[in-house]
């Protein structure tokens, strides 16, 4: 009999029809890339190269992409005898703990290992394995596919990418709810800074995706999609779009157009990694865009080209301002529902952002002034040439009592720290890191106490 | 179209996959003027199941295929499965074992029927699992390494290489699994360090002037010794080079030779040379034109070239008997505990025996030369790039490929023999018969 590797060494030309002179052989050889593991580079890959060259005068493939070896979350090789094997289908469908234990402990070469394997499995997966679905699993694989020697498979990543799929789903639902039955601009009209930004930022994602595929950096492709969808489209653009839709008229109609267009092309760009969810959402989006319900398939839609990225930073300043407002709210302990006025010191062009800031930072109003009031005791955030302050009318008595309590608490902490650090036994015997930590705590408490005391003094 | 309130992957997957497949969206692209983009699926074992390694690789191949399909390329992701000779045979053997049936009792034809049954039964598991992963290969072109077309290609390649003189038959040491009774590949051999002994045995000098003390970890193969060897520069033994020793038990005279392969520091600095049972000794034997003596049967028992009282004994029983006999003759000098690498078959755990057999070989030197040229001129690239170095090293030191296997499940070698041992390589038995001009033939 022939070694199994004999027939597989001919795989590139035999499957394409050799020894017949077929169209497939002429058209598809040399093939583009072989994706394989390093364990069979010699037994299989090298022999394919040599025999394909000998019989066809062609290389079998132009590139060989060598993938890493999949290991468990602790970095161990997966093997039946270690009892740490994961079945990809179980990750898609989920599996109950009892079934997983049974699967890992049947058919062992050494049945004595069963008990230890069952124990370890129960500890690691007390509730079995949840169902992640195919798309989340594929996204996880892609995100782990660096050029390293190992692929450390971590179930938490899977969980994270299932959340990502949910996020994408909910974003699409939000968009569809906001556009269905509404006026959608058909041609491009004057875009806002937010519109220009999201479109350009998407081109940046597309450039990263094309580069990622060209260099087999699937982790880069996954990251580009993830960051664009989650951090930019969902976290920023959907919020900005709400503001624009609320303005009504042509602005709203154009916003709906951009919401849809960016979503539609993002679905195309993400399809190769997460084919199912993108197809389902794309059908719904196309139905709204075209009014037809029998769109063909996303599989055959064209992959978006990367275009102009000049405006990819058009939102940078706005993001800084919005984040500054959020920081102010948080440092002042404002409840999320409370709307407060914002005062900005600086030139008036900043007012273009006013309606957006008002919505995203829950502001009552935005006023640009030449100089911030000097008598106010509120904190100030600086963004470039702008200085921002929230104007909060406070209940004087309640605030005084709150600050007094805070001062008492902080003084107590300072005393405790000083007591500890004054104790030579502690300072000499405790590890240096612990002593240093205590010193840092003391400094923190003192600084906060100083600020709060100043605030109290002003009242 | 109303979207469900929350994302339910299961329903969507089951809705879309059959639609895509039945609409022909995975099929090979044939558009006029479009660029080709082809990926070959590394064929998984036909009776295997999808593991995490497959799932990662299939996801990446599918992403690439879908990406290029959407770019308007003609795409072909060529799927298929491998008959996986030894792996599949072992699975079926184990199943039969569990039913108390031995493949030897069953006979070749009946056993192969069982393997085909098993292939029919479990052969689509992995392709079904690939569908669950959403992969988009050209299923209509799915192949199997033992289907008619691929078998034809294999025969054609064999016949052409044989006619070009690149395939030959020869005696060679191979890794022999005495339980499977087949040659196995390096891949199927796992060497691990185990506890053993280093024995020192006195080989009396034919001159009568004392003896040479030989260090060995395998005293039983002494029956096949063809020489003892020392380091050419070893002043302890230089004066003995060219003389002979009397091989104990076998009672043969064998020469004392000098070879740089011998390490002065190992044991006594004198080693036995057993070309039929040790890979290094084989090389030494070739250099010194020693005629190898094989002393084992296919299942690692002493054959009829051994002394009568040893014939038919298992190798380890024979070892003990030989040590006892040496002890009795006062020729066993010492036995020291010694750690050594023991090769075992990854499926049977049996200790692998270097074994002299008639095998088929492929001359690799010329083929490898072209294999190196294509990485040198950039026609073939590795990603990550560092694998190029590994590839170069392998092809630079390549040895001829022993590609014959003593298995039942697999593709047969298209060679026939007549009663005189003449070889007829042909595409069909009729063609071989024609070459043999009426002589009666049996297939390899």
Task: Throw out a few tags for this protein.
heterodimer; A: 459 residues; alpha/beta; Isoleucyl-tRNA Synthetase, Domain 1; 4 domains; four-stranded mixed beta sheet; two-stranded parallel sheet; 18 helices; 8 strands; 9% strand; B: 444 residues; alpha+beta; four-stranded antiparallel beta sheet; 19 strands
Overview of this protein structure:
The complex is a heterodimer of chains A (459) and B (444). Chain A has 459 residues and is an alpha/beta fold. Chain A has four domains: 2-139, no CATH class; 158-300, Isoleucyl-tRNA Synthetase, Domain 1 (Orthogonal Bundle), CATH 1.10.730.10; 316-390; 396-458, Valyl-tRNA synthetase, C-terminal domain (Helix Hairpins), CATH 1.10.287.380. Chain A has 18 helices and eight strands. In chain A, the strands form three sheets. Chain A has a four-stranded mixed β-sheet with strand order 6-5-8-7, covered by helices on one side. A two-stranded parallel ribbon of chain A has the order 1-2. The radius of gyration of chain A is 30 Å and the shape is globular. In chain B, the strands form six sheets. Chain B has a four-stranded antiparallel β-sheet with strand order 6-5-14-16. In chain B, a hairpin with a 4-residue loop joins strand 5 and strand 6 (182-184). In chain B, helix 10 runs antiparallel to helix 11. The longest helix of chain B is centred in the N-terminal third of the chain and has 19 residues, at 52-70. The radius of gyration of chain B is 28 Å and the shape is elongated. Chains A and B meet through helix 1, helix 2, helix 3, strand 1 and helix 4 of A and helix 1, strand 1, helix 2, strand 2 and helix 3 of B.
